[in-house]
Every structure is written in C-alpha cells, then in structure tokens.
Fold:
Amino acid sequence: MRGVTTVPGADDDPPLLDELMPWSVAPLRFGRSWIVAPDRRTLRARWDRLTAAEGAEREALFRPSRARTPSSAVAALPGQRTGTVRFARESGPCPTPVRVAHGPFDEQWLLPDHRLIDTARPELWRVAGEPQVFAVEQGYVPGAAGPALLVTAALPEGRSPAGRPGRIRPLFRRPGGSEPNLAPRLLPFLSERYGHEVDAREWLAWTLAAARPSPAGCRVPLPDGPEGPAAWAAGVALGRELADVQLRGALSGSRPRLPGGRRPYVRATVPERPGAMTYDAGEEALCLDEGRISPVPVEAWEFRVGGVRVLEQWFAHRTAPAEPGSLEALGPAAWPQEWTSELLELVTVLALLGAREPERAAFTAARTVSREDLRAAGVLPVPDRARRPASVLDHQEEGPEGQFALL
Structure:
C-alpha cells in the first residue's frame, strides 16, 4: 500500500516523515463498535449473545455494512485462529481477544475475527508482535495542541481523535524486527553525519522528540552544522524517555512513576455508573461524579492529541450510552476496579508526557539538513518498493470456508 500523496515543499523545509519512513497504512475501520471493548468479559458476552441468535435477529445484532454481512466470505487474519465459515453459520467459541490501541493512550480489546472487521489491514497483522513498534502519525488539525506522532506496541486503530485521517507506520517491515521501515540509505547517512552507528530505534526516538505537524504531514528536521551531533544526542535522549513512557515502561523495565514519590490514588470511591468527569484544579483532583482521584497534575488533565483532551475521550469511550437491546449495550453492570487501575496509570503517563511537552514543542535545530543534501546522499527520492509492504507470506493463511490461500 502506498503512502499518502504529499507535497514535499521547498528545499529549505524539513523532510516529511512520509519521505523518510515511507511504508504507511491507513487507519483500520472496524465497521461495528461492538467488536471492541475495554474488557474481555464484555466481548465474550457479546459473542455468546450473537451466536445464540438466529436468522434475522442475528443479522440485526451483527449490524451489516457494505463491507461485511453475516454472509460475507472472508479469510482469517494473519496469525489468528478464528473461523472462516460464513458468520451466519458460526456457532463456535469466542476467539481470544487481542489488545489494540483504540485511540491515543487508550488500549482496549478487539475480537480479531476478519468476518467482523470492515477493513482490518492484514499487512499490519503480519508484522505485529515483539519487537514491533507502531508510529501513529496524527491527522493535521490547524492550531491544535499535542504531539504529532505517538508510538504503541499494540496494534493501532490509527484514527485521530478529531476525526482526521492519520497514518500508521510500523518501525519494521518484517516480523522479528528485521528491515527497518526507513528510506534505504537514511541510517548510513545519519551514522556518518552524527559520528556513530544510528539504528532504527534511535531514529524513532529522535522523531518523537523533533517531529512537528504541517498541512503536508509530519516534518522531521535533522540537525546540521557543528552543533548537529549534540542536538541529535539531546533529541534522542528526550525521545527515548517519551517512548518509554508511551510504551508503559517497556524500554526501561519500570512502570512510569511521577517524580518526588507522588502518585495518584483514589480518595473517594468511583460510583457504579459515573456520568461525568470534571477537574478540580485547586485540589488537583479528577472527579467522576462523587468519586475523586488525586493528585492529578494539571498537565495530565490538559494533555491533548489533535486538540482533544485525552482523559475526557478515555472516559467517554467507557460511559457513552448505547442503544438498548444492541450488542453495544452489553457491558459491565458497574464500573470495574480494573478501569480505575488503568485510569491511575493513564494519569501518570499523561502527567509525565505533559511535563515534557514544552521541551518537546520547543525542540528545534538552528540548522537543518536540506532536502538537497538528502538527494545528494541518495536518501531521496525514496524508491517505490519502499512504500509497499514487504513480502512476508512465509506460512499458510486460511482463506474463506477453510481453504488455504495460495502464496
């Protein structure tokens, strides 16, 4: 799949992420909201309710779309053991839910059944898993606060909070962390420019620190001149810390913690069905009706992506009303304790990132590598093959009705 068609800009503009990290995939399109939920029990209950229904009732609960109906013939997703008979005849057990990034900093669970997902992007499923990391480029929103690029180890849905289309860019083109998804000559160019071997993870760290939004897409300035190596090192150090927080301590092996021994905790129990989330700045308290969590630094409350406050969207994904009798209406009878634990961790993550946001937003290089330099080094233009997914079909994948796909 080709990347977004973009206008690179003038030679003095920093290069686009689309030029340097060329293979990108459009967001997934689930097509029906009941196949994703914040907890696995809900998904199993919805599956059981659907497979217990027959005929017209099953079709209505399924919520058919142009892409998927109970009669659609669909292959299994790569790496997933799910049925491939037409869903109208499905009577088997619920597939094992998988973790997905449903939105910025909002990991939920998905039924990984290709028969239920309108547009699943199988090419992403083929390269998912350790040590893959996905860079999610946010859709451009003029004047919006927040980072232009996020990272996640979970398979991302990839949609920007404000509804603009984003792009998903895997760090590696093949399973097992082989073949970086970078312009073929970029890493040797950076290694020579900054005096040491630069690998894909170092590149990603720099990009998290330095990428900035533009109408054409994320631009990534590359520091030049005598101060270039020092600026690169500072940006990489910042980016590694940002990546570790976003990946919930996966790089350092330690879960994110606020400095000074501070940590948010529950001062008043969250009610069974909270209806609103508000913030008490004076008390540094997050209020879920009469439930209270503190201390919650203002940086966590004000943290936005694409102009949308992350905490409010996280809460809305768990409390929005659903149509009575629909599968979406099946959910926990009361606010689960695990949601509170996830919220406490999310507050910590956002507070840590928010505290570094001025540093990241102000991170600029006095001189940047020009597009002319990149062309002279053979980094640009990127070859068309780098924009297409690598061939990783090294095993059989089950097609519709149990037939194996030809590789």
Notes: The CA atoms of residues 270 and 337 lie 9 Å apart. The chain has eleven helices and 15 strands. Residues 1-6 have pLDDT under 50 and may be disordered.
